Each structure stands twice: as C-alpha cells, then as structure tokens.
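New to this. Help decode both lines:
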Amino acid sequence: MSVPEEQRPRLQAVDPRTATGKTRELLDEVQATLGMTPNFIRTMAAAPAVLEAYLSFSKALSTGALPMRLRQQIALTVAEANRCDYCLAAHTAVGRVVGLSQDDLTDSRLGVSCDSKAQAALQFSLKVVQQRGCVGDDDVARIRRARYSEGEIAELVANVAFNIFTNYFNHVARTEIDFPEVPDPDHQKESVQ
C-alpha cells in the first residue's frame, strides 16, 4: 500500500549507518543518550548545524529551573496549539516516562493542569504561542503571581520557542512518526467517560 503524497516526508532522514563526519558524531551521541535515534533527529541531521543547535538548546534547557515534567507539559501544550502530530506523539511517550498520567497528558495538550502553578505556566505558554510572543502586561503579572521568578519566566518563553522550532521543522519536513500516535484529546476525554 503506498503512502498518499500529502503524507510522505518532504525532507529525507539521514541513515546513521552511512553518516560521516559531524553528522555521524551527533547521531552517535543521540543514540548513546536515548538508545534510539528518532526520525526528527535523523531528518535534522541533513544539516549538522541545525541538529547541533537543537541538541545544544535542549541540553541547556534541561539544566534550567523548570522541572522535566513541566517542560513536557509545555511541549504538549505547544504541540497541540501548533497541531504537530509528530511532537504530540514524541512528548506523550516522553511524558509517560517522566511520570505524567494519561489525564496529565491529555490535559496538558489543552493547556490544563490540576496543579495551579503548572496550570499558570501552561496558560502563559499557550498565550505566548497564540499571541506570537506579544503577551500583555496582565499575562506577565499573572505568571508572576503564580510564583514564577524572572528567570523561570525567561525559561518558559525559551521552552515555548524551542518547541515551536521542532513543531515547525516537523511540519515542513513532514517527518514520519516513529512514536505511538495519539488520538485527539477531545476523543480521549469522551472515551474515558
């Protein structure tokens, strides 16, 4: 069965077995760290500068003040807002690994959390996406009232921007999804009830 044209990848993933130089080095690093080399990484590897920038940004954000759970929730909120099926599948898989429940995963896609501080971060992140960064003074005041420091607010914006990059990259590349696909969150809520 052939794949319809509108679903075929537009940018080709690099085969790690035939990669050389900096590309090979970066792909080997990802394989050693994750135990796998996801398709979006292999696709970014066509431009080693892009893959290196992605990996450096990811590593830097992982050393920040925001916990991994919240970073995954933000990734899901942003991916849903940008309708990035690849990132939804990838961050759902990673979210499970870091302890997010199915309800947490579904709620995060909608910018919702039962934890009030996480809820404020997700709502702020969603506003940043929807307003293309041009949030209002009241939005910044609201996130400060939720007890986020100046540095944490900067990290929220950085996490949103980082996820927008991966969403847009996967839209353009039409990256083949190599994680379990996830259903629409409204459908999930209906099937649970």
In short: The chain has a mean pLDDT of 92.
